[in-house]
Structure formats: C-alpha cells, structure tokens
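Lab notes, practical 5.
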Amino acid sequence: MASENNDEQSLKQCIQLMVTVISANISSFGKKANEQQLLNDLQNTIEKTFIEKANSSLSSQCRNYLSDILNRYNYDAEDQVFSTNFTRETVDRLLHDLQDILALIDAYQAAWNGNESIVKDFIEKYPTLIDKPSFYGTTLLYSVARNNHINLVKYLVEIGKCSVNVQNEDYSERSKKSSANAAVGSTALHAACYQGHLQIVKYLIQHGADYFITNAISETPIDNGLTKPNIQKFFADFLLSTYSRGSDIIPKRSILEEIERKQEYIIDCFWEYKPTTDNRWFTFSPDASSRLQQSLIVDSDKILITEIDLKASRDSQKISIIQFLLKRKNDQPENSAWVRCRGSSLLNFRCYSQWQILFIKHPTGEIKPSPTIEILDMKPTKIRLNSWYNMDKKKNFLLERAMNYRRKYITINLDFINNEQITFDLENFIFNNQQDTVGGFLRWVPKFVSCATKLPLTNNSKLSATTDITLLTTSYVKQAKRDNLIPSDEIDQYSLKSDNILNDDILDLSDKPVMKEYGSNKFINVIQGNLLEEKTDVIVISSSSQYLFESVMDVGGKSLRIAYNARHKQNAHQPVISIPTDGKIASKAVYFVDWQPNDNPKLLCRSIQHLVSNVIETAASENYKSIAFPAIGCGHYGCSASLVAQTFVKQVEKELINHPMMISFVIQKDRPEVYDEFLQQIGSDGQKLEASTPKRMLIKVGEATLEIIKGDITKQKAHVIIGSSSSENLRLALIDAAGTQVENAYNDAYRDNPNSIIITTPGGNLECQKIFFLKWEPNKNPDILRQSIVDLIWNVIQNTISHGFTSIAFPAIGCGEHSCAVDIVVKTMIREMKQQMQSRRLAWHVKFIVQPNLRDVYDEFCKQLLSLNKEPIDFQVPTTWERDDENNIRFSVLPKTNEYKMIKHGFHQSMGNKYREIINIERIQNERWFMQYLAHSRDFYKRLNENTEKQLYHGCPESATIAIMEDCFNRSFAGVNGTAYGVGVYFSSNAAYSHGFAKANSKGERFMFVARVLIGKTIQGNSSMKTRPLGFDSTTDGNHIFVTYHDAQAYAEYLITYK
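Output from the prediction step:
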C-alpha cells in the first residue's frame, strides 16, 4: 500500500457521490409536506448510485466493504435494495458514517506510511473508529505494527485506547473467500512477530496482546515469529514449555485451549513435600506421586476422596488432599510436611486452584517457636515466616491467568506488604523481590465444590476430611454457566481472559544490560570489553596485573607515568593512588590499587573487601559517579573466579547503600568463564536467575578439579555418575533417565548379588560411560555417618580407577530426604575427596551435583570447598623403592639384600614344611595405592592413638594377582577366601593358613601376598556380617584371621611366588 491505488480512489469517489446526494437532499427535509416521498426518492437514488458505481468501477473487495457499511441500514446486497424505508434519523446516521469512512481511508494510508500527524488528527476527530478495519480488512494498529512505526503503535494503544487484540476482517469476494489468507483474523501482534519487530512485540504483550489468538489459518503470533530468531528466542525465554516432560518446544496455545482439544489427561508436574521444620522441598517417590496424581483425576459429579494413606512408607503417613498436608505421628505439626504439585492444576487435573505463598525471609518477619499448619489471609500485619498465606481474589486471578498463558514468571505488587513488587517464578514455584530481601515458596491447592449446594467453596482450611466435596473443574464451570449458577460478572474469572490479559501485571521486557538495581537507583553491571575504553569516571588498575599496568601507561603516555611515579614516591603504601587523565584515556581518572592474590580464601575475601571499600570511598570523596573494575584476581593466580566474583559483588552492594554510583565489571572477551561467574553473581532478575540457571563453584586441588554445581544429576556429562541404594528417588530418577538397558542391567545384577557393595551398569541414555549404584545407609550417629561417607568415597575412587575413568558426578548423597546432618556429610565428602586427589596425585574432574531447590545444601558445599585446611599431604615412599620412568609396579627383590632375607624368614617361619622353594619375591610399587593407604593409616592413628598395622598374608590364584597389584584389595575380593568371620577381604598372620587359598598354576607355582593391614579396633566376626559392626574397623576369629571392609585398609607390599 505504498500509495493510493485506483481501487481506493474508486471507493472514495463512490462514497463521496453518495455523500453529495444525501447532503443535497437533506436540506429539503421539513420544508415540504411530502417528506416521506423525498426520503423514498433519496433511498432509490442511493441504491441506483451504488449499483451503477459498484458494478462499473469497484472491485469485489470494495463492494463488500461498502455493503458491510450499508448492511447496518438493512441493505440487501443480493436484491440490491434497502429492505426498510429511510427515516430522517436513518439518513443523518448514514451521512455521518459515510463521511467517517472517507476520513478513515486517508488515515489508513497515513498509518501505513507512518504519517503521525494525519493519524493523530483522525483519532482526535473520530475516536470511535480506531478499531474499524479498512477495505483491505486490516486495522490501523495492524498497519503501524507491520511497518515498525513504534511511536504510532504507542499512540494508538495509550492515547487512542485501541484494542490490541482486534482482528483483521475479510472483504474479499464472498464466493472466493478462503482460509488461505493469513492476514484475515490476524492481529497487530501477528504482524510484528512475522516481520521480526521485537520492540513492538514486547510492547504489545506488555499492553495485553494475546500471543495465542489464531488467525484464519489457525496461526498464532508465536507461529508467525518462528522464522525470526529474535522472536523465537523471546518466546522461548518468556514462556514455560513443560515441567517434567523434557521438551523445549514453545507452546502454541493456552492451557484451557489445550485441554479443550484433548480428552485424555496430561501429566506434567512434580509432586513435592516440605517438612514444616525444614526449608527444603523433596520429591515424592514415583509410587506416591502416581497415587497423588490419580487422586485428583475425578469427574465433577463424583465425590472426592479427601485423604490418602501411604501404606508403602515405613511410618504411617496420610496426605490430606484438602490441605495438601502430609501427616505423621499423631498429627503433630512438627511431624508434618506441606505438599505441593509443581505444575498446572488446569493442565494436569482440569481444576481451578487457590494460590498460596510462604515467606522464608522478610526484613521484619517473625517465626513461631513451633511449627503451625494455620493458613493465613493477606492482611497488613507483621509477616509470619514459614506460614502459608492465601492470595486474595484479584492476585489469585492474576496467577491463574499467568499459568493459563504459560508464563515463566509474573510480577505483582503485594499491597499487604507495603505494595512490595514481587516476582513469582512459575517454573520453580518461588518468589522474591528485586533486592532479594523478601522471598519464599509458592504453591496451589485445589478449589472445591460442595456436593450438596453445587456451589464453589472459598476456604479449604475450614473443610474436614468427611465433607462431601468434588473438584471445581472446567466441566463443572461449563455446566454451572448453563444452569446460571455462576453470575455473569464472574465469567472472566473462569475463562481467564480479559480485554487486557496482563492487567495489573507489571511486565518489564525492555532491553537493558544484565544488572541489579538497589535502593540508590544505581546499578551494577557486567560487560565484555576493553577496560581502557570505558567512558566511566574512574577505571581501576591493580598492581597484581603487570600487563594491565603497562597497557594503561602506554595509552596514558608520559604524563600519566610521571604523575603516578611522583605520587607513588610520596607514599608507596597508600591504598588508592588517584591520577586524573588528560583525555588520552576514556575515563576521567585512573585509580591504582596495591593488591596481591592469596590462596587462603578468608584472606582473599578480606583483601577484595578492603580494595572495593577503598576505591568506592575515594571515588565518593572526589565526587565521581561511575567506576569500572577489571576482574581482579581472576588471572593465573589460582584464585577461585566464583569466590572473587561473589566477594566483589557483595561488597559493592554494601558500599552502594552509602555511596550510590554506577559500577561496571569489565571482563576480557577471551575470558567467558569469568564473565559467566560475574553475571551469575549479579543476576538479571534476582532469585529467578538463581533458580533457573545452574550455579557452580570450583577449585583446583593439585592437578584435579573439584566443582559444585546446582543442577540435575541426570543431565551431567562425566565418565561415571554415582547413585545410592539409600535413595529410592535417586535410583529411580537415574534409571528412568538412562533407559531400559540400564534398568535391565541393574535388575540382573541385583538379582545375582543383592548384598553387593556396588552395582555397575552402562550409562544408557545418560552422558556417561558407567553408573555406579553404591550401597550406603544414613546414620544419625555422627561418627558412624562420617565413616560411612569415607567408605563410600573410597569405594567410588577404587572402582573409578579400575575402569580407567577420570571424571565423576556425585549427587548430594544424604542431604535429601534422609535429613542427615548436612554439615557432617558435606564436610566429610569434600575433605575425603580432596585428600584422595592430593595423596594419589589424580588429575580428575569431580563434580558434586546439588538439586536446585536445596539452596542450603549448595551453600554448605561451597563453604566446605573453600574453607578446607590447606595442610599439604607430606607422605614419602619407602627408601627401598627403586626409581622408574616407565610406570612399572613390579620389582624383583635381590636375594642377597636384607629386604629379601627378612621377607623370606617370616614366610619360612610361618609356612614350615608346606613349601619346597621360593621362586621370586617381588616388591609392589603402586604409589597411588600406597599414598591412600598411608592417608588412611594417619586417620587411624589420630582416631585410636595407637599403631594398629600388622604384616599379614593373603593367598590367591595367579589370576587375581595382577588385579590386586593394580587395584589393591578392593571389595570385589570380599568373601573370596571365605565368609565365616564376615563378608570382607581375609588376611592371616599364619602363612600356612593362607597357603590353602593359593591355588597352583599349570607350572605348580603358587602366589601369596605379604600385606600391610590396618586392623584398627577389631571384634569377633561371624558369617552374617556384611560390613564391620558399628564402632569397629575389622573382624577376627580371635586368633590369626583378620577381615577388612575398606579398600584402603590394606596394601599389597610383596608378592611371593613359590612351589
């Protein structure tokens, strides 16, 4: 529509002719007695004019458009006559409408071309025509949105008050009308999405544009934008695809539309529970989740079963469907747990819901001495922490509607807490304010209908388990509308639509850098670029970076160097040397700071805090308003980038309270990992980013890397992923994600050996080569718990070594549903793993994966990772060991040496006449296993305050010798030499006894190890012992036999080959 075309001109001429005819006759009305005859004559003239002009010069589209106008006056297009007679009132209205259409045609041309003055003038004169389509069928808003006239879009919406969801019409030939015309039924949002005008797309959605509305060919605005990467990315970030179904496909319809199309129920949710005394959510077992899911799938005319008995659990547990509450042990609140379904109530159960929020932090919040299950109303009183609040009717509607429209988040002002602006994360069911001083959890509970009155019930907390109720479902609402049980003013409450679908929802989609706002109304942001090109008041240069120091001197020139040298000479120890620039550098001043890295986390953090404080206070005293920091300490100093970023950001936040200004962290473009760390600490919208984006922290331990990640264990990439038999949820999650191959392999292995310490399966669909399912049980005794974690780590490491793997992904074992002492579990895991990496000199990558909802656990892992004692492991190998550059581990001991004579003497004394000759004695130099044995030995000595090491014998077939020399006495040898005194690895001080297990090879040769064994605290054993009794390290026959249960408890020092 670049210019006015012939079709448009013909339409205007036809309309103008009718206007002229009416105007010429209208003045005669009332002056003559035969007024009705004049009106009839005028009617005939208009009919004749329209027939002649329409048939001769108008296209079918223009004829239909004009017919649509005349239809209001009972014009019959088929017979080409008005079916009722004109009146004075009819003629006046017709003249007015025709004059309006003439002005409208010009306005459309102006809107298409972006002529603001003509469009604005038209809206002022004809405000009622703002949503009227042109003869092309398109609206004013559609035209300006299509052609990217953003100012006119804003004017039409904000000043003109046009409907953002008005749809185009079709004036094509009636016989040729086809659904193939995509413009028909489209809205302004369709056009903006199709053209890729992201700014207009965001603006229209901010003002209520429906992104699920369909045009004549069933396309939504989202469909129209899929060919434009920027539009596709926007909707992918804005909308929630799924909860549990593992899909990232952008949804194409609202939830109500989705369930209207499908007869079967859709399962897409997580069932979770939170003990009233804990701030963590745990996932129900698959069986319990299935039972909960089925309990809410009921017909609207059926009575609901309001309580479920979880008979499969160890304790008696009942779940109230009314309260979403799990009850244990006499219904005491401290023994109860809150229940929630993280997903849509409409999608999963076709029922409407009451939303509730629970504060876990608030500046003035108070907490009751003991837990309570009381549900509170949103009243302006002091906030009670760890208690659920019912959302009021208006806020509840906003949350229901946001879920219906698949939103990932929604921001609402909560008037009962001083109109605080709160962002609700509808994916993770959490909320917080922008300053992260207010936060908590979100859930919904079902709405119910009384079976007696057939009316919706408003307060679940007043219902009892014996009340006859059913769910307030979509099918009930349909029937209630037909029966007039729902007032007309409440219809929108259930359709979850309104003229402005986001009314009262604060939707900020503006383009801006990633930043976090504070009370000072200033910002912290992180950018990638060149520090020397930043146009801030101040740039900061650290003495630790010689490269950056010389770079700024080169750019600043001789004057900068002279000024710096002079100030440095005056006082070399001043914390900040401030040098004004002379225009050669983009900033107004350069701050030189004296800072050096430190591998002690506490000292590192303290030095960064002092640096930030000194810089900001100096800038404030010099009236500067913006500072650019480099990523100080994130170079090649061995400092943790995560710790550095966290410390910088937290200290800046603290300083901004007293000294508001703009702070930028400028990261080199070749350091994306550092950029990510700072970005993570700053965040884009507070807690939402924390919940939806995996966080990580890592440190180097020698050549190894220990990393903490907030994420999903089934999504990790490693050589081996660890599972535990103590967590049914974890085991099933791994097997479910890994697939049928892994499930079959696990079941086969478990059936063959149900008492196995470890079951190894392929990786299946997971990004790993193997999955290790380890037998481990939690314990409330701190000492036993620590030792069990130590044993677990050792078993993992030994089996990982035996497979030749170098990367492991650990879940946060014991920190979930078992409620173990998290600090003990985490500290032991981190300490033991770090010690093993150091003592064995392993260049591994070990990842500890913490579920996103376990924020306290994640924080504990990070704390322990950074606060470990950095005391080096200073072990030395025996002086008898030979140097070797070829990684050999077997060395023949020369017969003339004292070493040989000592081993031979002990063997002869114990064996007597049970052997003829010693063929060879070999020394085993496996440094990796020797170091771990010595580390274990040190721990035994610290705990028992005595040396419990013994030199014992272990006979075995030749086939087992290589495995023992390479992987030591791991638990795969448990029970091989008997089980009479426990199912472990057997040793004896009597070589003649061990001789019974040293089977001869084809040459008649037999093999026996001389081992160093830590017996620790020992106890009489029996065949029922699958592991050492609590409080003991080994079992014994009371004489010469000792049984160990830990891989690092023995070291194969010599191998005797004899006949």
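Observations recorded by the TA: Confidence is low (pLDDT under 50) at residues 174-179, 510-522, 684-694, 869-874. Residues 574 and 594 are 8 Å apart (CA to CA).
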